[in-house]
Amino acid sequence: MNLVASAPVAAQSITMASTTSTEQSGLFGHLLPEFRKASGIDIKVVAVGTGQAIDMARRGDADVLFVHDQAAEEKFVAEGGAVKRYPVMYNDFVLVGPKADPAGARGSDIVEALRKLAAANGAFISRGDKSGTHAAELRYWAQAGLADRKGGGYKECGCGMGPALNIGSSANAYVLTDRGTWLSFKNRGDLVILVEGDKRLFNQYGVMVVNPAKFPHVKAAEAQKFVDWVISPAGQGAIAAYKIGGEQLFFPNAGSQ
């Protein structure tokens, strides 16, 4: 009797363009195994700044997009890059800096803090990488009336959140960071949170399937399974359960907008 060995079934896999903050905070290390258990689908994450992640999706080089710059996300949907944007979770930005706070930036008003920083020519490390965090930072400088006058200590690293914090730590400089990456960051040196609690520091994340009508090779069905799962009670619960030192890093809010 001839037995024909059945070929092993290849695992389904999709590519996600996402941000350094979701990757470096450790969220995906917690979240994606849960999704794989529920669906059998592997996700390969390419973690870059939000602007680069959207550009990847714009070229059809990703199946799903998970980022945090709402204006840019809505523009991407309006261009036909995705059919729909789904809110998924939020956290907030914080301004960290040297404990001694030589620029006197400490408080709960990010715009006032940046004005003090510029006036003192305080050392400030900007990501300078068109990420969601960089977009937010530029928005705050504009609100401070300082888009072109950020002070002599302002430097752009063109890097992700973790490397920007490493530079800030070694240079004893101020850095705008998402709270998730800060909580998971080990090399803090003398840096502490100086500004938090300003409602302008709210940081919303969205998720969307890259439009298969525009890019027929996109694995839209599998990508939609991820979107459906991450906004479901199971996915939202997994986001809420991710903590470091007992502190929750991201707060699920699917269906909020």
From TrEMBL:
<feature type="domain" description="PBP">
    <location>
        <begin position="13"/>
        <end position="233"/>
    </location>
</feature>
<protein>
    <submittedName>
        <fullName>Extracellular solute-binding protein</fullName>
    </submittedName>
</protein>
<dbReference type="Pfam" id="PF12849">
    <property type="entry name" value="PBP_like_2"/>
</dbReference>
<dbReference type="InterPro" id="IPR024370">
    <property type="entry name" value="PBP_domain"/>
</dbReference>
<dbReference type="InterPro" id="IPR052738">
    <property type="entry name" value="ABC-Tungstate_binding"/>
</dbReference>
